[in-house]
Amino acid sequence: MPYRIPLSSLFVVLNIFLISAQEVLNVDEAVKLALENNFQILTAKNELKIDEYGVSPGYAGMLPSVQANVTDNNRRVYLSQTRLDGTVQEQDNAINNSLNYGVALDWTLFDGLRMFANYEQLKENRKLGDAELKQVILSTVGEVMITYYDLVQQRQQLSALDSTILISKQRVELARNRFTIGKASKLEVLNAQVDLNTDETLMQRQKELFANTKIQLNQQLARDLTTDFEVAPEIFVDESLLLDDLQTQVLKENPQLLASQISKRISELELKQIRAARFPTITASTGYNFSESQSSLGFTTASNSRGFSYGFGATLNLFDGFNQHRDEKIGKLEIENSEVAIAQQEQDLLATLGTTYQTYLTNVSLIELEGNNEAIAKENLDITVEKYRIGIIPTIEFRTAQLNYINAKVRFSNAKFQAKLSEIVLKQLAGNLSI
Question: What pLDDT score does 81 carry?
Answer without folding.
Answer: 66
